[in-house]
Design brief:
The complex is a heterodimer of chains A (244) and B (109). With 244 residues, chain A is mostly helical. In chain A, 79% of the residues lie in helices and 0% in strands. In chain A, α1 runs parallel beside α7, α4 packs parallel to α10 and α9 packs antiparallel against α10. By secondary structure, chain B is mainly α. The chains are: A mainly alpha (244), B mainly alpha (109).
Chain lengths: 244, 109
């Protein structure tokens, strides 16, 4: 009986390590599937915007795995298509992606136990959706190994779907009717990304100031109007938050 | 510089931002004030980008923005806010643009 109990106990102890990758990956697949359904049309729409922008389509598509961040990629492609200076494109991408540094700071304490290779590989896959999924699971107090498998499961599912979706858009763009308002795809998509961020009064004022300043300063060279709008909006938004 | 090269640089910069705390000094946390300021980066930059794109489309017209495009962008924003669905957002934005362009032509005739 004692032997049988010991056997059961050892099985129970061994089970988590054997089941770990499978269980973490199964949870990752369940969590990430709705996200994949959500991001795929966005990727296709960015591909269409690349096709309409007039830049090298292969170079534009490569941004899907080089930048691996939809809004920054779309901003970069839109500015490249308008003939902006390299510095303006890079600044826009960095400013839009600054939030990824915020995610990095938020996740760093939870990932401190991870092996070095993982802490170098993981940042590549860090996007809004993965941050959201992982934050929810970290709140459940899961082990470091579980986090590693879960993170890689989500990241390696997101990556091919995203890259393929942008490719589909790039290939579909030229096939669409010539009179379709493709040039409007990028601003419509950006407006769709903007709306969910307008969750507070400072955020709404930041967006309004950003847009107003960008229009007022549109005549400046090298799309400096964009950056003037961006920084004016950020400054006013954070000033309003501190005042409250 | 080619689009590929610029996007490669953008990719390196983006990786740097992502890795800054995870791969680097994991014990350092971002100052609260900086974090507060960054919360408004996304709405400010995206709104400025939409405005810049629309202003560029309106170059050579008497107004700073084309009213049909403003209607399209507002429709896209409202649908995104209500549904959080990018497919419906695009359909609404492009549909409103085409409808207002058609209405504009009718009024003009």
């Amino acid at each position: 009986m004692a032997v049988a109990e010991a056997g059961i106990a050892s099985q129970a102890l061994a089970a988590p390590s054997r089941a770990l990758p499978a269980e973490a990956l199964r949870v990752a697949a369940r969590d990430v599937t709705p996200v994949l359904i959500g991001v795929a049309p966005f990727g296709v729409a960015i591909g269409v915007a690349i096709a309409a922008s007039g830049i090298d389509p292969v170079g534009g598509w490569a941004g899907s795995w080089l930048v691996f961040a939809g809004s920054a990629h779309l901003a970069g492609v839109t500015l490249l298509g308008a003939g902006s200076a390299v510095a303006a494109v890079l600044t826009a991408v960095v400013v839009i992606n600054l939030r990824l540094a915020v995610y990095s700071a938020a996740l760093a304490p939870s990932l401190r136990e991870q092996p070095a290779w993982f802490r170098w590989v993981a940042p590549y896959f860090l996007v809004d959706q993965l941050y959201g999924l992982l934050s929810n699971r970290l709140a459940e107090g899961v082990s470091a190994a579980w986090v590693r498998w879960y993170y890689l499961g989500c990241g390696l599912a997101l990556w091919p779907v995203w890259v393929a979706a942008v490719a589909v858009g790039v290939m579909a763009g030229p096939v669409l009717p010539a009179e379709s308002p493709l040039g409007f795809a990028a601003p419509a998509l950006l407006a769709g990304l903007l709306a969910p961020t307008l969750v507070s009064r400072p955020a709404i004022v930041a967006a309004a100031c950003g847009a107003g300043m960008a229009i007022a300063a549109h005549g400046l060279p090298n799309h400096l109007g964009l950056l003037a709008g961006a920084f004016a909006g950020m400054a006013v938004g954070s000033w309003m938050e501190q005042r409250r | 510089m080619s689009a590929l090269a610029v996007l490669a640089l953008a990719g390196v910069a983006s990786y740097g931002l992502r890795a800054s705390f995870i791969a680097g000094a994991g014990s350092v946390t971002m100052p609260a004030r900086v974090e507060a300021g960054l919360r408004y980066a996304r709405p400010a930059v995206i709104a400025a980008l939409v405005a810049t794109t629309l202003a560029r489309h309106a170059e050579g017209t008497p107004l700073p923005l084309r009213p049909e495009e403003v209607i399209g962008v507002v429709a896209a924003g409202l649908v995104a806010w209500r549904t959080r669905n990018l497919v419906w957002t695009m359909v609404a934005g492009l549909g409103a643009l085409l409808a207002s362009e058609a209405a504009w032509r009718l009024v003009g005739q």
